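Example with several molecule types.
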Amino acid sequence: MSRASFLRRSLGTIVRGGLLVGGVFALTGIRLGKRPPAGARMSLGIVRPPGSLAEAEFMAACVRCNRCADACRANAIRFFGPEAGRHHGTPLIVPEERACTMCLECGTACPTGAIQPLLEVTDVAMGVAAVDDRLCVSINGTGICGACFTACPLRGKAITQGIRNAPTVHAEFCTGCGLCEEHCIVDDRIGIRAIQVTTTRAWPARKVA
Amino acid sequence: MKMKIHKLQIARRLVQIAVVLLLLALPVNARYANYVAANEIDRHLERWEGSLQGNVLTLFDRAYRALPGGEKERVGEMVRDDEGVLHNTQAFRGGPWSAEIAHVSMSDPLAAVESMVARKHVAKVVVISLIVPLIATLLLGRVFCSWICPVGFLLELTDKLRGAVAFLEIHPRNVRFSRGTKYALLGGGLATAALFSVPVLGYIYPPAIASREAHDFVFGVFDRAEAGQFGLWFGGLTWMSLIIAAIALFEVVLSRRWWCRYVCPGGGLYSLLGATRPIRVKLLEPKCTHCGDCVVACPMGLNPMLDRMGVECDSCGACISSCDDKALAYGLWRTRKRATEEVTPSGTLIAK
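Resulting structure tokens for the full complex:
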């Protein structure tokens, strides 16, 4: 093969490869720009499984294999669908539906280290819970509850109770597991729980309408 | 053409069928194990009795309870040790893209390489999950494609459909592309992964799609059951399944095994890793009658009489089965004997 024809063929292959890769993105709708996916709870950010790497590194390391969900004892791990572009197949936790019980099995199941294995529950830093004073029945005076305190695995540390069981969240201890949110009694019709977990992950800025 | 089926071909079919069953069984197993771990299994077994989901869970429950537990108490998939602590003995997870089989973590090399390239960091767990597939590929070549890949299996079946379509006097075309395309896609995909720090090839690699879709499908069915709706539900599937369907359709009407031969980036990586495999299909030249049956049989479009079974061969053994003269066999590359040959005046090779 002459040098010219070799170059021509290599160039042809590279062009074809480029077209293919471009076609892949067009086909799968993967958008590589830093665009948060549409979906649940975006105003609060995505809660990733306990031990997940920082967001950019997590997106690079995760191979979207679903093994974390297979290991999850609480069935709390969900996945983004293809409509979420490059987030498709990455795990998230929606605490209001099913909160993390911090069994930490997902970290041992992850084949890439995107979710690091943790040893202690106190190492978990998925997010921080916050109480909405207007909605919480113990705070706004419409009842006496204490469900979040009872559900909290670090009760007495992450959540303490005051008069009429009014909860106080201590951010330095809160792991963001979301059990308080799952068990909050405030009616679903409001569409929002009185205690909610906000992710602690650094997330690309997004305007919340 | 008389077909004598090689024993390995039967084994290969059985493995392929087992993989397809595992594709659905592993997510069900995961779900079962999760219910056990969450102490929800008895409640679900009771309330879902008679439904599809309930029957499947009961099947798994009986199977696990039939396993020998020794003196240790077995609670479904969890074993209680002497100190009363429950240990997760969940030994089977994942799918063909990345799996844990009998507590051995295995990842598709494409998954591992993509993850390392995108993250620009070599994590220990990735390397550990690479050990088994890498050794198998270095020794045996592209056997993942011919033995494990569920989409490879599907395409082998649709390949048979090509014959049926031809019987109906519709003649499927057989367009050929450049085999370099898959290496270009592999290189381009890895470069994209490195540039944008997202492992993108997993989104088009068929076994990865099959893994995710099967998982989403099974989990979707059980999620429905938890919401009180029973029966099959295909809403767990996403349109990514259509990619596999499109590949199969294209295969039937336009180009035989086109994805595996020309496009598959994972197949390309397996080809490269298996390039120097010691165990490969070998031609015993003295026995070859140059009938050409193997050329017709080869699903990868190779010529076993000439190609010396290089990087493109997936060692499926179809040529061995097709050979009536026993001139093809698996063998060690290094002990390959050169037959003494001489060229007759008519130009054919005869062996002394």
